[in-house]
Structure formats: structure tokens, C-alpha cells
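=== RUN LOG ===
request id: a7f3
mode: sequence -> structure
chains: 1
length: 251
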Amino acid sequence: MLALREVSLAFGGLQAVDRVDLDVDQGEIAGLIGPNGAGKTTVFNLITGIYAPDAGTITFQGQAIHGQPPHRITAMGIARTFQNIRLFGSASALENVMMARHCRTRSGSLAAIFRTRAQQQEEAETRARALELLEFVELDDVRDVRAADLPYGRQRRLEIARALATEPQLILLDEPAAGMNETESDSLVRLIRRIRDELGKTVLLIEHDMRVVMGLCDRITVLNFGRRLAHGRPEEVRRDPKVIEAYLGRE
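=== RESULT ===
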């Protein structure tokens, strides 16, 4: 589904990503791990069009997407969450999810001003879908609560619901379990599995909680200093001496 080939990006004299290869197959939950500063979030930014690579190619379902703007990549079927939560704090949980549906709606500003029948129907459909997603992530009881007033763990779930509202085929989760206790992270693992198993989405996640990564991912890619250090199934990566030395040994 997703393929990065020899992808590189430098910021001035810093080589943030250095000839990275990455594959994600349809229907899998893939992990991207490594020490802080290894280039993981930069890879997400390259995939989603925030950055354009200096070299290499990125393809999604066989179509080149490197250099495309973020809104086009979203429309093609890739969505993401962020390491630092980026919700609309003054908007309700429901409004946050509804706003994310903009990329799948057709009504323009004039239709909204004059409240045409087609626009009202589209808005009703958007609201209904947003409510379904809030129920899916177990936030339907706080749909009218301001996003900024939600507990941290629920804000993380709201970000996931908002990403799902764009109807992606591939969803990128940037440290979804960060700051969560063991009970919250276990609940998150169940949610991510449901996203794959019940909604049919493919997942690529960055995560530092190795209990989450090893228990959830089908395959794992390890980055270190912007380069791919290892790639394989969780048990293979866990035993790799290079990974132990560079990352897992520090845990």
C-alpha cells in the first residue's frame, strides 16, 4: 500500500532522513520506532506532504505522492494524528470530527450561506457519521464537551476519530499512547485493533511504549540517526543486537 524508496531529507547541515526504505502492506499494523531524534516524525511529515523529500520516492497504492500538498494526500486516503495534540480546543468533540469531513463534502460557501437542500442533507450526513465515529472511539457521551476540557486520554481518542472522519485507507498515529497509564494504553491497543479489524484500515504508528508496539504490530521498522537500522517481525526486531544497542537497551 505504501512504499518509501531511498527517501532523504536534510535541514541545513542536519541529515534528518537518510535513504530510508519503508513498506506498509494493506491490512497490517506496522510500527516505526527508534530513539528520540531518529527521524520518525519527519518520515510521517514526508508521507503526509508537510515536507517534500530531497531525494527518493513515496508511493501510495502505486501512485507517487512525494511533493503533493497535504490536502491532496488526505483526499487520496491518508490521515494522521500528531505527537502534540492539535484539536480545535474551543470546539466541541462533535464539531471537531465534523470539521474533518470537509475533504469529503461537495457543498461550497454559497450553498452554506443559502442553506440549500443539498447542503442541509450533506450536513446531516456529516453529523451522523461524526456521531458514529465518536461512538466507535467511546466518546459519544462527551460529544458536546469542548475538546480543551476533555481529559488527555480522551483528547487522544478524539484525534483518532477526527482522522477517521476523513475516510482514510491508511492512518498514521504519532505516539498515540504517549502520557497514558497502563490501563489507558491497553484500551488504546484494543481500539487500534478494531480500527484495522472492524473498519478495514491499515495503520502505521510511531510509539515508544514497547509493550504496545510488540503486542500490536505485525512488522516493525527501526530508525536511528535518520537511517533504517532494522526491519522485521516484533520477535526478530527484539532480538536484533543492533536494535538492542541503539534503542531497546536504553529502555
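=== NOTES ===
The chain has two domains: 1-77+168-251, 89-165.
The CA atoms of residues 142 and 150 lie 8 Å apart.
=== END ===
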